[in-house]
Amino acid sequence: MKGFHSNISGFYKLSMEERQKLLSSLTNLDQNDMKILKELGYFSATQIDTLIENVVGSYQLPFGLALNFKINNKDYIIPMVIEEPSVVAAASNAARMARKHGGFHSEEVKSIMISQIQITQLKDIEESKKVLQKNKEKLLKIANEQDPMLNELGGGARDIEIREINTNKGKMIILHLLVDVLDAMGANVVNTMAEAISPIIEDISRGRVYLRIVSNLATHRLAKSSATFDKEMLGGDEVVEGILNAYEFAAADPYRATTHNKGIMNGIVALTLATGNDTRAIEAGSHAYASLSGQYSPLTKFKVDSDGNLVGEIELPLALGIIGGMTKIHPMARIALKILNVKSAGELSQVGAALGLAQNVAALRALASEGIQKGHMALHSRNIAKVAGVPDALLEKVAQVMIKEKKIRVDYAKQILQRINDGENL
Ligand code: MEV
Q1: Are residues 232 and 365 in the same domain?
Q2: Helix (H), strand (E) at residue 223
Q3: Residue 38 in domain
């Protein structure tokens, strides 16, 4: 690419159209690429340009629906945004197996977020801890003055936790401000409160405050769900035994636990994205929670009941909101929340936990029986055929031949297409 460089100043000051033009002059994007780039879908140019910086386009992903979910005796259709084939079907399938035994039971989730305030350079750490504790009510009052509306609605700063940590820069006090953020994800409100009380904290503790920021390890916002999955629908005793073995494998081996939890996140992150929530916060919190014992562990647990059915449970922090952030701005997130019909952020987290559990059971069932590739390959082979330039009318045919002959490759899809065009009856 002749003349390509990334040293561009004032890019943000250009209109989106000007940015697109400049981009096209710098790269080898062709006319077709530029046409796609200019398609903003349901966003207006002004809307999308104010969401992040240096915007040049929008990016679409499939929006699918997981079905069959019954959680706390209420039916849910769960929107999922994900690029991976088989995930939505797998979750729906596992939900059907749980439905036979009453569906999922998810516990109430309190929307308590933690904001951390880092206090350093303390002369007398014990004395500082004491005086901070003594001034708790004063700190909570000032924190609550930052968001009168939250208070009116029944939320607000509730408590403080005082922790001492040892660091390479000496001992520090980490003050946790615990805030009931009600239906929000809550990062903004707790950060504002933490910043507001920090000067007073410096005053009373005689220390120096540096960081004042939400913790994504939301241990006061844990979501727990459990369900019984039908033995016969899973594939019988042998498959259940396989799932229990898979679980013990994950419990003993962080390499496996990572993939085990990745499967859980397939569901939870897809819901997080669909509802306009912060996927990175959910991922970071979940994986940190999985490591709290000192060993990275699975977020689910399994056993069998007296009839040999599989009983699963999941526990993880889930800071999902139904107001604030992108939840009400993103047109598809708004639709997702309407489809979900949840009345609170806590209810959304209850759904998230159930979905994560279902997703995990579906993956373990496939792994413990026919393997994961069979289900994957049906959709994957269609995608491969598409990449190979197979016309829509022949996609299914070409995909089926590739699956049958166990050769799912672009070059092979082209060969099959050629054979069909040559009149071969496949
Ligand atoms: C693939 O996206 C997810 C799985 O690897 C999860 C697992 O191994 O449990 C199938």
Answers
A1: yes
A2: strand 222-229
A3: yes
pLDDT digits (tens, 9 = 90+) for 236-283: 999 999 999 999 999 999 999 999 999 999 999 999 999 999 999 999
Instruction: Give the distance (Å) from ligand 1 centre to CA of residue 269.
Output: 14
Confidence of residue 425 (pLDDT cuts 50, 70, 90): confident
Cα dihedral value 395, 396, 397, 400, nearest 10: 120
Kindly state whether residue 289 falls inside one of the protein's structural domains: yes
Same domain for 121 and 102: no
Residues serving a catalytic function are 84, 262, 278, 376
Closest atom of ligand 1 to CA, residue 266 = 2
Q: Would the pTM count as exceeding 0.85?
A: yes
Task: Return the structure tokens found at 386.
Answer: 């598409």
Task: Give ligand 1 pocket residues (Cβ under 6 A).
Answer: 84, 259-260, 262-263, 266, 363-364, 367, 372
pLDDT, tens digit, for every residue of 74-94?
999 999 999 999 999 999 999
Mean pLDDT within 165-174: 98
103 shares its domain with 246: yes
pLDDT of residue 169: 96
- What single letter denotes the amino acid at residue 404? K
| C-beta separation of 55 from 73 below 8 A | no
Whether residues 169 and 266 share a domain: the answer is no
Closest C-alpha residue for ligand 1 atom 1: 263
Model pLDDT for residues 352-401, shown as the tens digit of each residue: 999 999 999 999 999 998 776 676 777 788 889 999 999 999 999 999 99
CB atoms within 10 A of CB 100: 14
pLDDT of residue 2: 61
17 in helix, strand or coil?
A: helix
Same domain, 262 and 349: yes
Backbone angles phi, psi at 40, to 5 degrees: -95, 0
Domain assignment of residue 57, yes or no: no
Span from the CA of 258 to the centroid of ligand 1 (angstroms): 9
